[in-house]
Amino acid sequence: SPNELKLFLEYAKKYGNITEYTLVLLLAYSGIRKGEAMGLKWSDINFNKNEITINKTRDSLGVRSPKTQNSYRTINIDPDVIRQLERYEKWCIETKLSYGIKHNPKKDFVFMNDSANPIHSYYVNIFFYKLYNLFQEHGIKMKRITPHGLRHTHATILIDMLVPPGDIAYRLGNTIEMIYKVYAHKFKKQNSEAAILFGKAVKHAIG
Asked: Is this model's pTM higher than 0.85 or not?
């Protein structure tokens, strides 16, 4: 839910380092896949237009083309996330300089560790596990979530906000058919609520 996601992000900011928090924030607000985030280079981010372009994925096997043809996309990102990415880039530049490395937006991957090396796929998984344990320690009932789970959270929140399925499919890099298939239960509930809202609108219309 939005409330749970807000709490999740608050914990990520409080207990994570700048790379962990920035990555989690981007995953939550964009719905992109973990591999797509790991494959991002600074040149894929348009800070002026608040956009990111997905054109590759990266994991333990290396860099390759995105999962499907629909995965190639340019999506808008919330300005707050863009500002966090700007702060993060400054940290990356300073960290690289401390190792005598020059920042190269066209070649450098966005997400790196404290040693100025691109993060591995298990990097974010470990952080998610850490957050889950913290919730347990603090007595907070929170379902265990994976990086891919944030993708589903992004989609379900948009569905609840009545965002058109086509727009959701585009953001996720999926087909509309896949969105309907995976989130059929959400659309069924949405359809029922739409009927109720329509009835209320007509009944309360001023003639």
From this structure: yes
